[in-house]
Amino acid sequence: MTTAPHVWNRFARGWGLGFAAFMMVAVIRLVTAPDLNAPQRNLALVCIAAIVLAFLAFRPDMHVPGRGRPEIAYLLTAIVATGVACGTDSSLALLLCIVFPQVWLFSPDNRTGVILTGLLGLSATLGFMTGGGWNAENAGLTLPIMVMSTVFSGAFGLWIQGVIDQSAERSELINQLEQTRAELGRAHHTQGVQAERERLAREIHDTLAQGFTSIVMLAQVARAALPEEDSALDGKLALIESVARENLGEARSLVASFSPVGLDGSTLADAVRRLTGRFGQETGITTRIQVTGDLTGLTRDREVVLLRAAQEGLANVRRHSGAGSVSVRLSGTAEDAMVEISDDGKGFEMEDEVAPRGFGLTGMRDRARSGGGGIEVVSAPGRGTTITVRVPRDVTG
After folding, report:
1. Residue ranges of the domains in the chain?
2. How far from chain centre, in Å, is Cα 77?
3. CB 99 within 8 A of CB 117
4. Nearest Cα to 26, choosing from 60, 49, 6?
5. How far is CA 171 from CA 92, 155, 164, 174, 248, in A?
6. pLDDT tens, position by position, 177-226
7. By the 8 A CB rule, do 322 and 249 touch?
8. Number of neighbouring beta carbons within 10 Å of residue 78
9. For the chain, where are the alpha helices, taking DSSP H only?
10. Would you call 374 helix, strand, or coil by DSSP?
11. What pLDDT does residue 7 have?
């Protein structure tokens, strides 16, 4: 899942420009102020330089606020420097307009933000009291303003942070909703595809398969009724029967590949055993099944991938291999699970790019990838074919 950019990313450039603008205004004020003597002016310039240098040295992250020690180090430096600058020239209270917001921009959490806001208010108050004199008159002017400024900054910072947190939660909920909607869309699509496959299986079974079966039976009846000396017509009827049987096998193979996966109420191993046994009964091909390892804990989606791989692999053996025997091996490890279908048929040339598409391997490969796994094919002319499909126990990404 892609993480949405933090809300502060929208204002990062503005905060940087604002910081630079306030520092420049402060410097211009100090350089042009006629009421400051040289020591005051130099001390205030040192404070501003300390804030700028600390910002450049610690490089607080403007893009994702509040990430660690560099931000805290910068804020502490800015708090102390702002207090000293306010003690030197009260007009430098304008520094509070940038440092108060930065406290909340760079604080890692609300508690730290409240503490640093209080420290900044205290530092500025001490600076104003030192610069204006420790007397009741100055205290009466300074304390109410600084208390109100500090309280307002803390309350406003908490409110803004609450809005940001609420927006982040809402964004996360929206992301989850979009993911759920996408998953429902995929589920509905899969159900629709499966329903269409089942409909096609019924249509093929009720029309083509039954038709080919009838042709085989009619050809057999016709051959039985022929005189023995009519060998030419018997050969033609035998060819008709052979072609019908071949196409009946193709129709049954399509029905098997389109039929629903038989996992309801049974384990993957039981379903593969039933599939292999039925394949042997229908084709007369010698079949062997071997189940090893731990197959528990697989999700239903990955079990379906393996069962479909076995189903389609056996269908390919029926249609193309001309094999006399086939073996199915199902195994599981701590990392993955696999199904392997091996036959002793005619095989094909691996360098031939047309053959894999004709053998239905593209669909098997796509199905394996959908489960986070992959497919391996080993074949050679006259040496049979071995297809191995693996899926991991856990899929990330």
Report:
1. 7-134, 263-397
2. 42
3. no
4. 49
5. 40, 24, 10, 5, 56
6. 998 888 888 778 777 877 787 788 777 777 887 888 888 888 888 888 88
7. no
8. 27
9. 12-32, 38-58, 69-88, 96-106, 110-132, 136-204, 210-225, 231-258, 268-283, 300-316, 354-358, 361-370
10. strand
11. 52
Per-residue confidence band for 147, with pLDDT thresholds at 50, 70 and 90: very high
Residue with tokens 């093929």: 204
pLDDT of residue 117: 93
Give the pair of three-digit tokens for residue 105. 């921009």
CATH among 3.30.565.10, 3.30.930.10, 3.40.50.20, 3.10.450.50 for 263-397: 3.30.565.10
Average of per-residue pLDDT across 241-261: 73
Contact predicate 124/86, CB 8 Å:
yes
List the structure tokens of 306.
């393996």
pTM equals 0.47
CA-nearest of 306, 299, 301 to 269 is 306
Per-residue pLDDT at 229 exceeds 50: yes
Tokens coding 46: 């040192």
